[in-house]
Amino acid sequence: MTPRTAEERQREIVRAARATGAVDVSTLATELGVARETVRRDLRALEDHGLVRRTHGGAYPVESAGFETTLAFRATSHVPEKRRIAAAAAGLLGDAETVFVDEGFTPQLIAEALPRDRPLTVVTASLPVAGALAETENTSVLLLGGRVRSGTLATVDHWTTKMLAGFVVDLAYLGANGISREHGLTTPDPAVGEVKTQAVRAARRVVFTGVHSKFGAVSFCRFAEVGALEAIVTSTLLPAAEAHRYSLLGPQVIRV
Q1: pLDDT in tens, 194-213
Q2: Over the stretch 105-125, which tens digit does the pLDDT of each residue have?
Q3: In angstroms, how far apart are the furthest CA atoms of the chain?
Q4: Do 160 and 195 contact (CB within 8 A), yes or no?
Q5: Between β-strands 154-156 and 221-224, what pairing exists: parallel, antiparallel or unpaired?
């Protein structure tokens, strides 16, 4: 049934964006039986409500307290960009001997890019990260206990944060659902936010890694300010002028 009202159309657009990861104006116009300008108007309204972010010719869904992409989806999205970012982030290890690696696909790629020729202790809440490193020679893996979230296969809740509170790590590699100069680093789930907050407290150095689409996005729970970061590693798809604005808040911004 073709949606009749703007509200019905917009609900259908959000559903489609969340199901596929992105939507384009032309396809939506055809499927909804409306003019492209009508779709553009719907996308503007949805962006105003924080449900999507518009791109040239379309939009993608914004993660929120009620919606978050799965690890399986993240493993198919922006993969070449994420691999470049992960390699550059691993290059920031320096003389760190203990490392926290966050949940998420890019942190998993960082873990796989860490050097194997020297002793390293990796602390993580991510089952995929722990699995990727478990048989690596010279790497000791500490998996934080707790409730496992199905979408991201990472542990959360008080067991996780209590265990993490007992550590001091040289370097934390963190991801986020959004980063903005005004609101800092954010994530949709309060339980995830608590783990990330504790990781920031536990770390001597903090590095944020994220694809260009994370910038300017704001989610529900803030866990760190931009000024708490030593470095931000992203890609050249983030404009140089915008990267400079973030660097003014303190961190080195590396675009690869």
Answers
A1: 999 999 999 999 999 999 98
A2: 999 999 999 999 999 999 999
A3: 63
A4: yes
A5: unpaired
